[in-house]
Design a protein that fits this description.
135 residues; alpha+beta; YdfO-like fold; six-stranded antiparallel β-sheet; 4 helices; DUF1398 domain-containing protein; YdfO-like_sf
């Protein structure tokens, strides 16, 4: 079993998750805050309903993810994922709607690589769609 994140990192992860779910923080601010707290990546698992945050030393922290009543589509639609991402980047789509849209696009979860500056979105048959962070 891996070690737990330190208190400051846990607090940052929980604050970012709470603000994301409430639509009061944008993705760029989340990435910045988590990076400053020593978190290098996180995985959002739609099937388990949780976010898992990772530090470079292997420390982790898991937070429950409230999910909308939207089934994960059988087919993965990378174009619909891209549209959800662009909507979020423009501020037109808040996190709750982003989750609904990506579930409807067949996304089972995504990995945010803060230090790698990209997000990988996964379909149920192993499909992977990569979005690089804007410059």
């Amino acid at each position: 079993m891996s070690a737990k994140l330190n208190e400051a990192s846990r607090r940052a992860a929980e604050n970012c998750a709470h603000q994301s779910h409430n639509g009061t923080i944008d993705f760029g601010s989340v990435v910045r805050a988590l990076g400053e707290a020593g978190i290098e990546s996180y995985f959002t698992d739609y099937r388990r309903g949780e976010h898992t945050y990772y530090a470079p030393g292997g420390e982790t922290h898991v937070i429950a993810l409230p999910l909308p009543d939207v089934a994960i589509a059988n087919a993965f639609d990378a174009d619909a994922v891209t549209q959800a991402v662009r909507g979020a980047q423009s501020g037109a789509v808040k996190y709750a709607e982003f989750v609904s849209r990506t579930l409807a696009a067949g996304c089972v979860g995504y990995f945010v690589w803060i230090t790698g500056r990209q997000v990988q979105y996964f379909g149920r048959r192993g499909e992977v769609h990569v979005e690089r962070f804007p410059q």
